Amino acid sequence: MIKYSLIEIYTSEDMHWKNKPLHLAIIEMVRNQKAAARCIVTRGMEGCYENGEIASSRFEVWSLRMPLKIEIILPETELAPILSHLKEMVTDGVVTVRESNCISHRSEKHLIPRNLIVKDVMSGEPIAAKPDSSISDIIRLFISKGFNSIPIVNEENKPIGIITETDLIKKANLPIRLGLLSHFEDKINDLLSNYGKLTAQEIMSTPLHSISEDEYLAKAVDMLLKYNIKRLPVVAKNGFLNGILTIYDIFQTVSEHVPDTRNIQKHIDLANVKVVEDVVITECPKVLSDTAIEEVLKIIDGSPLHSVAVVNSTGKLLGLIFDHDLLTLFSEHKDTIWDHLLSAISFTEIGRMHKDKIRLYHLKIASEIMRKDIITIQVGDTIDKAVRLISESKIRFLPVIDAEGVFKGVISREALLMANY
Predict the structure, then answer these.
(1) What whole-number distance in Å separates Cα of residue 253 and Cα of residue 213?
(2) What is the pLDDT of residues 30-57, one digit of tens each?
(3) For residues 385 and 265, is the Cβ–Cβ distance under 8 A?
(4) Which of 90, 91, 116, 140 could form a disulfide with 217 if both were Cys (CB 3.0 to 4.6 A apart)?
(5) Tens digit of each residue's pLDDT (9 = 90 or more) over 68-103
(6) What is the mean pLDDT of the chain?
(7) How would you class 177 by CB atoms within 10 Å of its CB: exposed for 0-12, middle for 13-18, buried for 19 or more?
(8) What are phi and psi of 186, to 5 degrees?
């Protein structure tokens, strides 16, 4: 048996802490401690207080201060921090603690807290565009804000469509993805001048998938996965655009509010716990450290993640190369590289055409251009840790390694969300 402590608080429903009902403030405090604790609030039917007051539901005048009992059960080792907060918060009431022998403590693991609603998580004050907005302005907005989509609203601020990077490439003939375009600031104006009077309404995607701010977050996650999208416009009761919900918003909330699985597993028998190995994917190709740059160019052209992992002869991960890193190879010939990118020529073809012009003899192999300062995660780490790393670092995916550092694949935000829901 494990030593647990039972905290009992006897107070009344009219007590507050920092302009919030005391019982709600205590529940929030316990949650924020991320302890292996459960909390319950019970409202009494009748009671009396030290000063002679009587509370009773039978008489309206006496029912203004109905008694409350708040109970918190938790491992003895996690008692001290919560007691410290309670001593400050409970300004009228009785706080007691007694020992309890825990026979078992079991719980189901959920990434998304069931009580959360969309407006608890969404980003407010969303940036949107109007149907008559020019495509050149839309592209500038994408680049300046780092967006991959933007909602289109009518004069009443009600969303009627959305423009994604895919829409720009397929419908507006954007020659390169926005991540690469941002590296050619001096060329952007010339490119955008080609779009003339093309407007958002002409290329936006409809029908639009949106969600009410009062819906449970679980429904929003369902929609993100079902429609394979990364951003959901959020509307108020009147249908006005009131926010944007992204996978990053969800991960950030989870990182702030959900306890670390490894920590609470010290006390709780958790069900449904998954580790990185359960959801690792292998979309990211790999090359040996001595692979020729020409070969790297060819491989990265076909990479869905626009990147390639660099490993040694034993498979140990050494670094990553992203497609925009390859632009440094052609830095002395930026004008001609820009012309080739506009012609939708691949990195492979660019490398072949400029092999005699650029200084490839200074950068012959993958290890000489790879990024070494990368964040990784191990196959045995919990999904919680992966979510926190992606959220804190604001990255799209994590390379996965084993205990010896051998590259096993990658784990993406979408894969994490799907695995945990």
Answers:
(1) 16
(2) 988 888 899 999 999 888 899 888 888 7
(3) no
(4) 116
(5) 999 999 999 899 999 999 999 999 999 999 999 888
(6) 83
(7) middle
(8) -75, -10
Residues linked to residue 71 through DSSP beta bridges, in sequence order: 8, 40
Q: What sign does the dihedral 137-142-145-151 (CA atoms) show?
A: positive
End-to-end CA distance of the chain: 32
Nearest to 289 by CA among 329, 316, 250: 316
Residue-level length of the chain: 421
pTM higher than 0.90 for the full model?
A: no
Q: What six digits make up the tokens of 127?
A: 């940036």
Q: Are 139 and 161 in contact (CB under 8 A)?
A: no
Place of tokens 């991959």: 148
Write the CA distances from 166 to 127, 160, 171, 238, 328, integer angstroms.
19, 18, 8, 30, 26
Distance CA 396, CA 183 (A): 19
Residue 183 DSSP SS3:
coil
193 in Cβ contact with 137 (< 8 Å): no
- Residue of 330, 322, 319 lying closest to 296 (CA atoms): 322
How many CB atoms are closer than 10 A to CB 182? 14
